[in-house]
Amino acid sequence: MPQPKPDIALFALGGTIAMTTGDAPGVVPSLSGESLVQAVPALAEHARLRVRSFRQLPGSHLSYADLEALVVAIERAVAEGARGVVVTQGTDSIEESAFILDRLLALDAPVVVTGAMRNPVQSGADGPANLLAAVQVAASEQARGMGCLVVFNERIHAARFVRKAHTSNPGAFDTPLAGPLGWVAEGRVRIVLRPESVPPLPPCDEIREAPVALLTMSLGDGPELVRALAGQGFAGLVMAGAGAGHVSPPLAEALGELASRMPVVLASRIAYGEVLRDTYGYPGSEIDLLKRGLLHAGWLDPLKAKALLALCLRYGLRNADQLHARFAPWGGGYLG
Predict the structure, then answer these.
(1) How many CA atoms are closer than 13 Å to the CA of 60, on its beta-carbon side?
(2) β-strands 155-158, 163-164 pairing
(3) Interval 96-139: pLDDT, tens
(4) Domain 212-330 has CATH 3.30.470.20
(5) Whole-angstrom Cα distance, residue 315 to residue 177?
């Protein structure tokens, strides 16, 4: 006897996958979630879809508040019987939003984020294939208990590692540190790696705004931008250092001063590897910066380090012990 098809909740947030032309030049988000589903008849072979057009925005327009509202909607959908969840959105912010969902959701049900690099009016639009693969993963038993996943170009990525590596290629998403967790072939979901589970952030009754700045070290940078942050309403800073986490001596001094006033996370601007701890000892090195009170990002890239710090601060996790506990699972934390 055929097995009943699983219920999958689909939340459409806009993005390239939903963009078409209008009266003005260029494409804009306009297609509903129902329209996306209607363009892929094969979806009906794999799941019963509960479709909701949740937002209609480009990826760069999404906010923390949008994603926190999405978390509530996802939790409700799963409580009401959804076997898995698919989120379609703009690719500009997928590597951030997927990680935020991963840090806020405590579900065994698969949550899969996907989108498109080519809009529906372009030749070779990739949205339908990505949507089909995402639903197949969300409906699979293999994907349960793996946190939030990103499915793109039939590859399955962990939200904690995935990065957008190309501005326009359909194979834009990559996992520099660990490689994909698996793939989809002929509709079959193959999971070959299972990342260690990291508990999400605890629920919070009162979320507070906590803007976090992100600066990237480049040749010749001095302390001016860091010093300008003080008094501008920021609650924290992520510094994407050169190499293994390095900055100029004047910038190191300014970062140390700022770290006495707000959390300052040290990440690396490099795609592969992690911030070092005890190799380089010159002024502005990782040893120097960590001694000045910066918070080690571990192997989180700058965007994810910023997302994690922002979530911690928004959810009231503000003291050194709380921040250390949230960065430690990623190989980070405060010195000592």
Answers:
(1) 2
(2) unpaired
(3) 999 999 999 999 999 999 999 999 999 999 999 999 999 999 99
(4) no
(5) 28
**Nearest of 200, 199, 204, 182 to residue 191 by alpha carbon:** 182
Q: Domain extents for the chain?
A: 7-191, 212-330
Rounded Cα–Cα distance for residues 87 and 96 (Å): 13
**Dist CA 61 CA 67 (whole Å):** 11
The whole-number average pLDDT for the span 312-327 is: 96
What is the DSSP code (8-state) at residue 5? P
What gap in Å lies between CA 285 and CA 264, rounded to an integer?
A: 15
Catalytic positions are 16
CATH superfamily of domain region 7-191: L-asparaginase, N-terminal domain (3.40.50.1170)
pLDDT digits (tens, 9 = 90+) for 269-279: 999 999 999 99
Burial 106-116 (b: 16+ CB within 10 A, else e): ebebbbbbbbb
The tokens for 263 are 């959390």
- Looking up tokens 């250390």, which residue turns up? 324
- Chain centroid to CA 156: how far? 14
pTM of this structure: 0.96
**Residue (of 68, 54, 47) closest to 15 by Cα position:** 54
> How far from chain centre, in Å, is Cα 155?
16
Q: Do domains 7-191 and 212-330 have the same CATH topology?
A: yes
